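tool=predict chain=A
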Amino acid sequence: MAEIAVVGAGMGAMAASARLALAGHRVTVHECSGTHGGGVRRLERDGFGFDTGPGVLYLPAVYRDLFLKTGRRKLEKCVDLVPVDPAERHVFPDGTAATLPNASRAGVVRALDAATGAGAGEAWTALLDRGRRVWEAARRPLVEEPLPADPGALAADFYPAPPPPAGRGLLRRLRGARPAAPPATVADVAAGELGAYPALGTMLAQHALAYGFDPRHAPAGAAMLPYVQETFGGWYVRGGMRALADALYERCGERKIEFAFGAEVVAVRVGGDGRAAGVELAGGGRADADVVIAGVPRARLAELAPGAYGGGGTPAAARAVPARMTVCLALRGARDGDAVHRTVVHSPDPARELAWIFDGENPGTDPEPTVTVLRPDDPAQRPDAGHEAVTVTAVVPAGAWAAEGAEKAAEAFADRMVAAAGRAVPGLAERVLWREVRTPADTAAETGAPGGAVPGPALAGAGGAYLPLPNTTAVPGLYAVGGWAHPGGGLAHAGMSGALVAGLIMEGADFRGSR
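tool=predict ok
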């Protein structure tokens, strides 16, 4: 039995802790804040409830496996997990809207044909088929296996080259003699393969942006993101997604894991043999351990354990990661019957939006944002049937409105977000009772992420720029877990990082990944 010290009580850290405790190890979690769950938080006020972190769970199999293997009660016995159907609605700048069913390829085809023109559904299906090929090639090395010591094989994209042009006889052979190179970026895919249907290109770009990726530079293999979403479906936990974090915390309690809240770790102790030997706490305390697991952002890990990655790591360490702005709206009036759980309202000027988020361009006034509107049909999120809780989010630059006196500018951007959301919620402006605005600074305070940045999942391609840091470090006995470590951000990926770290600790070099 090993003594294990865990830094942070995020979802990945708790997932690793539960698995290790089941194996007989003694686990203590040191969390500097007063609660668990990392970025999976909930705002409650006047009977209204809002998810201020993820609003939908994709790949629920990760948590089904976790709960199945760490206790007697399965996931569905611990939380009320329900499919989100319709999966989402897209509202485009020209006013057209497409409402997509959950996990129904034929239904998506019909919806896209009706909204954006005959043939659109077939074009989107062809894209998802290529996304499936990326997923099949990337699933093991990018999600279910530890990052290899030499990740060079993941520097190249898995996105397939387009099929050869149509033609017959000599013309076909001549065309086939010069096969087209696969597109390099999401934007290339949108322009080259979805160009006949601009709305589809907008949808694909938004899938990348929703995870904090710049579609102008993110590798084409990001096309697997809509494939995974539409194939495995989206899921919601009644009572709010925070209930999933609460259930995992309860499972950790059942496994006799000790949590120390308000316990700030200031350094990882390294013994004379060069191995991690525990942690040092603020105020001069210390906790000895045989193994240390750090569920913190990479910048924080570099402070706790200088040289953990030998001064290197992956190119992702230098890539800008954006943040999220969230506006919680308490509304008078019942949720209308045509409402869907998740609506994406697309920006009328995406080029300006991307330049503002990723290039640091100051357009004078903040651009019209792409917003995601969450309207869960959940009695636990509202005081009664005559009210509704709505959450509006937008991707913004990390550290936005952090300067002294920037509150007015933040409120002005929130106004823009609410105005955009009004295209998805009838009579929104007249229904608002009150709102609360959460800036990247709030995310930074809760998660410790610089500028409130929110990491996305691992992607192959772009020379490895979208690969997170490995779970193992240059310090033996020190491991990294959570959204900033392999396989990256998002609820499912954070949970999988816990499985990988637990496997590496229990099986060492023989560990070949989660199955």
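The longest helix spans residues 120-144. The chain has a mean pLDDT of 92.
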